[in-house]
Write a structure and sequence with these properties.
Belongs to the CDP-alcohol phosphatidyltransferase class-I family. Pfam families: CDP-OH_P_transf. Keywords: Membrane, Transferase, Transmembrane, Transmembrane helix. This is CDP-alcohol phosphatidyltransferase family protein. The chain crosses the membrane at residues 33-60, 81-103, 109-136, 173-195. This protein has 206 residues and is mainly α. It has helices spanning 3-23, 28-40, 42-47, 51-75, 79-103, 105-135, 157-169, 174-205. Helix 2 packs parallel to helix 5 and helix 6 packs parallel to helix 8. It has a single domain, classed as Up-down Bundle (Four Helix Bundle (Hemerythrin (Met), subunit A)). It has 8 helices and no strands. The chain is flat and about 50 Å long.
């Protein structure tokens, strides 16, 4: 819901960084892989209850996620790069609630499982529609510089990182935060399915 506003704010500085890295011969895929590797460090840190240090690596991962797109725009967005980026993004997203579950399974297991289940819903509805949008050559009016058709929703990247920040700052309230965000994700999934179904049905009839 907030991604288009966040992108408008950070796009210019990211493009400057992306141009500099491109000049150094660094590729978008290298940035993607480095960001994922650094983000993966958050999982054991969360599991061992080093929440603030884990937050540092979570934020680094999200910064790299913005930079890789800026680097890619220097040479042109590629489908292979987009596939790599989104696949690693979803793995990273699911690793964060898993870390909290490992830290305190007796308190966080149920809420963490529900949140990961909710992530499956947002992810599958997002990617399934992207496949069909590509098949029917549907235009993406909001995120025109993306390799995949990005469906808007109540919970996008900006809301997700905000949720992770709250979890790390208030780890003892993880269950409540996860439950609330899971409900928001379920709402996003349902609206995406409704919108996606009717959009594709209309495209089929044209």
């Amino acid at each position: 819901m907030l991604d288009k506003y966040a992108i408008a704010v950070i796009k210019k500085p990211l493009n400057v960084i992306g141009h500099h890295l491109h000049q150094k011969g660094i590729t978008a895929n290298q940035v993607t892989l480095a960001g994922f590797a650094l983000g993966a460090v958050a999982l054991p840190l969360l599991a061992t209850e080093h929440y603030l240090l884990a937050l540092v690596f979570i934020l680094i991962n999200r910064i790299f996620d913005g930079i890789d797109g800026a680097v890619a725009r220097q040479t042109g967005i590629s489908d292979s790069g987009g596939f790599l980026d989104i696949s690693l993004d979803f793995l990273f997203y699911s690793s964060i609630p898993l870390g909290f579950v490992l830290a305190s399974p007796e308190n966080n297991a149920i809420a963490g499982a529900v949140l990961i289940f909710a992530f499956v819903g947002t992810g599958t509805s997002f990617l399934s529609f992207a496949i069909m949008a590509s098949r029917y050559k549907l235009a993406n009016p909001v995120y025109q510089n993306k390799s995949l058709y990005y469906m808007s929703g109540l919970t996008e990247g900006t809301e997700t990182i905000s949720c992770f920040i709250l979890m790390c700052l208030l780890p003892h309230h993880f269950a409540l935060i996860a439950a609330v965000f899971a409900l928001m994700c379920f709402f996003t999934t349902m609206t995406r399915i409704w919108y996606g179904y009717h959009t594709i049905k209309h495209a089929e009839s044209v």
